Amino acid sequence: MIFLKSERELTLMRQACRIVAVTLARLQEAVVPEVTTRELELLALDSIRSQGAQTAFKGYQKFPAHICTSVNEEVVHGIPGARRLREGDIVSIDLGAIWNGFYGDAACTFPVGRISPEAQRLLAVTRQALERAIAVVRPDHRLSDVSHEVQQFVEAHGYSVVRNYVGHGIGRAMHEEPQIPNFGPPGRGPRLRPGMTLAIEPMVNIGGWEVALRPDHWTAVTADGSLSAHFEHTVAVTEGEAEILTAAPA
Ligand code: MG
């Protein structure tokens, strides 16, 4: 069942999502060569707690950390640790916050110092795929129209979309119905309705879409070792254009 949020509930979600957005902006400043992913995790933890919220990921299905940090060929669910980021890396940071019972969830792939033109293009295309998807989030559209938009945009640029992980409804739980794949034919699934809140999150690989799991049982990597990027926003369906709840603070 898809839960439609009341105006009061949306007010709470806006706050949870703003805490996530503020934290991502702080992380962007902190992503520099030689920083460790553990240091980024501690910064995120401090940012979320200092805004009166809790982190959403630690302990979720026994995930061992407060945020996910996925470097280069790592797709999602990388575990922060002693790894030092190097000039030319890309790092996807995914984080969630819980505030007054509501969740916010967002992700962004950041460049570490100067990165290759190829990596720049991957980040640009993945970010644009998310923007294109959000532009389709309108009450006259159906859920798989969003999925289709991501796939056709990404594949038109010669990249592939990850199939094993999907976006999701979000609210009083981090993962609510519906699931939102980043591929598939248009015109299917439920009609979008005002009050739906959705986490849309294209994961894009330069090579093939297949992923493998590292021995830590969490970190998903591209099967062919190619670079991967991930951008995510929590959005609310309105009568018109979607409201991006995790939009970067002004
Ligand atoms: Mg998510």
Please describe the structure with a list of short key phrases separated by commas or semicolons.
Creatine Amidinohydrolase; binds magnesium ion; four-stranded antiparallel β-sheet; five-stranded antiparallel β-sheet; 250 residues; 15 strands; 24% strand; alpha+beta; globular
Tell me what you see in this structure.
The protein is an alpha+beta fold. The chain has one domain (7-244): Creatine Amidinohydrolase, CATH 3.90.230.10. It contains 4 helices and 15 strands. The chain has helices spanning 7-30, 37-50, 117-136, 143-156, and strands spanning 54-55, 68-71, 74-76, 90-99, 102-111, 160-161, 167-169, 176-180, 197-200, 203-205, 211-213, 220-222, 228-230, 233-236, 243-244. Strands 8-7-9-14-15 form a 5-stranded antiparallel beta sheet. Strands 1, 2, 4 and 5 form a 4-stranded antiparallel beta sheet that branches. A hairpin with a 6-residue loop joins β14 and β15. α1 runs antiparallel to α2. The longest helix has 24 residues, at 7-30. It is globular and about 45 Å long. The model has no long low-confidence stretch (mean pLDDT 98). The structure holds magnesium ion. Residues 105, 168, 199, 201, 232 line the site of magnesium ion (MG).
